[in-house]
Structures are given as structure tokens and as C-alpha cells.
Amino acid sequence: MALIDRVKYDGPADVLVWRFPQDNLSLGTQVIVNQAQEAIFFKGGQALDVLGPGTHTLRTANIPLMRKLIQAPFGGETPFTAEIYYVNKAVDMDVKWGTNSPIPVMDPKFNVFLPVRAFGQFAIQIADSRAFVTQLSATSPQFTADQLSNYFRGVLLTRAKDYIAETIVKEKINVLEIAAHLEAMSGALQGKLADDFAKYGVKLVNFYLNSVDVPEDDDTVVRLKKALADRAELDILGDKYQQKRTLDVMEKAAGNPGGGAGAGMGAGLGLGAGLGMGQMMAGAMGGGMAQPGAAAAAAAKFCVSCGKPLAAGAKFCAECGAKVG
Fold first, then answer.
1. In the 8-state DSSP scheme, what is residue 303?
2. pLDDT value for 253
3. Which residue from 137, 140, 179, 207 lies 20 to 30 Å from 230 (Cα-Cα)?
4. Taking a C-beta distance cutoff of 8 angstroms, is the pair 66, 49 a contact?
């Protein structure tokens, strides 16, 4: 087999590690290493010499570790076999991550378990080519960022899930309002994960927790959002909230096609009578006078504008000022 006289990178642009396909080298072979790359020599499963960017002619001086394993010169050249791995040391800014299933977390504000999901991205850089190739890419012809993400998925998700759940409970953060805390949580998670990456020669340049949310179609989430909407409406309407709710029920009952017009009207009248009786009793108690029930019901009058009970003989409503017709 002919000796290779020139070695250069010819792999995909988006891989972290690429192995030169041939291994029959010799002293005098040129090895071209691009910017943001390193070339690392392997022989017999051992990681040996590392060359930085530039054009290198292989001599015993620039591959001292290989020299110990090379046989005596033959015909002016010293043939030897060695694998060359090109390592991309540029920063990869867009490695995606996310929880594969929701995390059940007790919301400290509403005391219900909510299914929490988390998504983000991180940037990595290979800091130690020898450690990275030895421990991760091994003998693979190439190693991608996706493979690295999959390799770290277990530890990343475990730490992320534990930290998110712990922070929500400890800091009493409502899951529906967690967006304001994402920056601080991202920094904390980067600190927790940095050592896990460093053990394999990888620098975690940054780490982002882009979103923490809940599935919109989850039953618990739907009920919670409905309850929050009702509470917000109550806060806005104040005293008029109950009146609006009652009118909504009456309107729905009157227009119920399943019960027929008569049934709808009956339900509406029943609710109306109940509302009137409640208002009449409130008016009677507020006036400090008690009348027999039947007589009070017959004599009581109510404002057509606001529905409040009217004082006997009143020409204007004491509640809203509307003229009594």
C-alpha cells in the first residue's frame, strides 16, 4: 500500500471530530491543520502527539511520542501506521436540549401538581482534544454535536429537572410566572453542569433555559387557568360579579335548546325569583325592619337599573340614583 504524503481535513463542516480515512504514513508526510482545529495521533489505542493549526512536515521532533513507536528508517523514509483525528475546537453555539417528558412539580402558590416542561440550548467548545477523543468519540469515523448532546442528555436532564423542581418549591415561584426567573436559573444550571462536561474535555461556554412551561391541553392546567380567569373577573367587577354570573346563568337557561322554551323560561323565572327573594331579604335586613314574609314579597320594589331594593315611596334609587318610574 502506497504511503500517504499529504493529510488534510476533508470531512463535513459541522462535526466535532473526523478521522482521516487512511493510516499509512511516513516521516516526511505533510499534515495540514486548519484554524480552530487540532490533529491528534493515535496508535495502538493510545492518544499520542497533537498538532495545532498550520502545515506540518512530520519529523521526529514534532511527533516525539510517536517516535518511540516508529521502526528504524528504511529507504530514506520511515513508514509507520497511525490514525489521525481532526478535532474542531470552534465554539458550537446551538446545541439544543429539552425534557422528553413533563416533570410533575407541586406549584407552591396553588398547591396542585403541574406537568412542567423545559427547553433551551447551550454552547460548547472542546478544550482538551486528547481527553475528548479518548473518552467520547473513541474509534468513530466522526462525532457530531447531536451525538454529544445525546451523550450528555441523561446528566443534563437529571440536573435540570432536580434544579427546576427544587427552585420552584424553595423560592415559591408560580409556574405560570416563571419567565422572569429564567436568566438566573440558566446561570445556576451552567455552574452545576460545567464539571460534568469538563471531565470529558468539553468547556460549557454558556447554557440557556429558554422556556419553562406547561402543556396547554393538560386537564389540571385548563382548570387552573379557568379559576384564575374567574378570580380576575371577580376582582374587576367587585360587587357586580354575582349579579353578572346570575344573569349569565339565566340567559343560558332561557336559551337552552335541550330543555325547550318552557323549561328554559321556568329555570330563568326560578332563578329570578330566587335572586329577588335574596335582594328583598338583604333590603329588609339593611332597613332594620321586619315584615311578614308574604307581605314583604308583595310590597318590595327593585330598581330597574341596578336591581337593588327601593325604599317605600322613593322617587330615586339610593344605590345608583336612577329615577323610579
1. -
2. 66
3. 179
4. yes
